[in-house]
Amino acid sequence: MALEPGEGAIALPVPVPDITMSAIAEERGAMENGDVCDGGDPENASGEEKVREGWSNKMDFIIACIGYAVGLRNVWRFPYLCHKNGGGAFLIPYGISLITAGVPIFLLEVSIGQMLQTGGITVWGIFPLIKGVGYAAFSVSFVVCTYYIIIISWSLYYLFASFTSELPWGDCQGDWTDQYCNDPEMQEGAPDGYFFSMNGSLYPLDDGESPAQQYWDNKVLGISSGIDELGGMRWELVGCLALAWVLCYLCIWRGVKQTGKIVWFTALTPYVILTILLIRGLTLEGAGQGIEYYMKPQWERLKEPTVWIDAATHIFFSYGVGIGSLISLGSYNKYRNNSMIDTVVVGFVNAGTSIYSGFVTFSILGYMAHRQQKSVEDVVEQGPGLTFITYPTALYTMPGATFFAIIFFAMLLMLGMNTQFAVVEGLATSLMDAFPQYKLRENRAIFLLSICISSFGIGLFLVTEGGMYFFQLFDSYGASGFCLLWIAGWECAAVAYGYGFKKFYRDVTEMLGFSPGIYFPICWVFVSPLVSFGIFLFSLIDYKPATYGDDYVYPLWGNILGWCLAILSMHWLPSYALYLLLTTPGTLKERWDVLKQPTVFPKPPVDEMLTVSGASKDGDDTAHMVDENSAQVAIIRSLPKAYKTQYYYYCCQTQCLLKRSNRRSRVQHSACKLAYVVGKLCACFVFCSHYPTIGT
Known about the structure:
By secondary structure, the protein is mainly alpha-helical. The chain is built from 26 helices and 6 strands. 62% of the residues lie in helices and 2% in strands.
């Protein structure tokens, strides 16, 4: 049988064969754990389709999401924000932001990926005019993929340096120190406000630096005087960066089935290490002072807008929404997976881990404050300063310092790798599903290798002597709250106002098998977009140029470079929409009508596309709907993918309705059978309008 495409009115010189559900099942193949990676776009038609794999079981997905969401920011940023914004009182805006923005958008991304069975770019074919949100998320994902692994390379460096009888960053004996190194063991008899340097000279205490600070700046980073002095390569870090990429590649190259097994170790082991560190921290002198400082509520701080801004921004960072990874991870779920309970579990585990790690951090900071005879506030830092200066200083002074240093930096390595796995997998899945004509999924190993090599090449700029200044720009602009809030807000808008929240709600209800309630639709339509765009605007109004440390201010061109990194992702929404409007033929109204029509549709599993065979429980025989005809498969395969997917959607929806109706009244069952017939007629009209001439 041959099908010839044509234009104009429908002409059917011969009867159209009955395209049955069994034919569709044969076309879609064995898809119990996934679906065909066609994405639904007509331009993506590419001949043979490769079957998507899927998670081995539900728990693999949950553990992978926990590993992705629970990352380094839970350890180094949440405790700092909690202390900065009112201690225990900060948990109130944090909890409100969690339930109004974090959990709803998390559920939206996982559900839409699971429902459409495609990656973070193609999924936004539900409303093509805003498909640029997928490319924006992809751009942020690539930035994160490139710079986040630098933190892992630093962790590897410290991990290797910890395999020694005496940790190297505890005194000023190394060749990386200068006259401003303040060795605590040499300060006996020093006048108030001064310290003794290694050569016996007195210097003002404010000019001094701890051994851990100088180890970080001079030994690890070899940091230059500014961003305009790039300097040479830090070859030890280059080796650690290469090793980090090798580990990442080996863990994900075979697909999510392999990754799902590895994350059981890398995601759960950090909890064991955190518990060991907490037990040790609680036995240290001054631990109670640190924990009291951490949790003591300052209720008056809740009146300050910045407290609420910090809480909401941290939620977006912590949950990793807006970069497409959750969509890609969800796309490997089975269609009927209960993604709602997955979201709730991950949400509570993530929040609980942040609070739990705060106890670990502040028990150690209380110990440091006690030893240095300072207040806890004077020793608190955030980001790399907390992880690679404050923590190493505390670890050096503990009994069994080598053991605790090894397990601490091993924990950082695993926390970082969990996030990196998900980011790279999301990046690759988005491209594989968006451009199947290049057969990227069939050549997954080579494709992933090319991603790793290209990201490694760009990352080399970040392991130079001036690389830390560029790293700060990547963190402050390229993957900043500006970008994530912008993308998350438009994701909600695309679903609620583009695709239609009622339609999306029905699709999610059909997928889950039960109604998710009214709370989530309210958040998707009103609350989450309002929170996202509101904080985005406030962040622009309250914008402050990037800095490094307490005293380095970036030059104008440095901040311009940072904004270019932000615009790299944010521009996709208006520019791609403008591109579609300019290149789509027809009047403006006709273009709008075309660009608001979905090109991707929900994809139920095979068993729901197959006809109910044999007699039903009430004796109604529906076996007449099954007709084995190999010519029907040829008809389906010859259709453009958008029409083929739409046919799947019509038939699956009506067939599921028919199956469930067997347990209902005869009138309801007759209505469902009528809906099935109408659905098939609609599907025939869709593809026959594109293929008006059918011949043998």
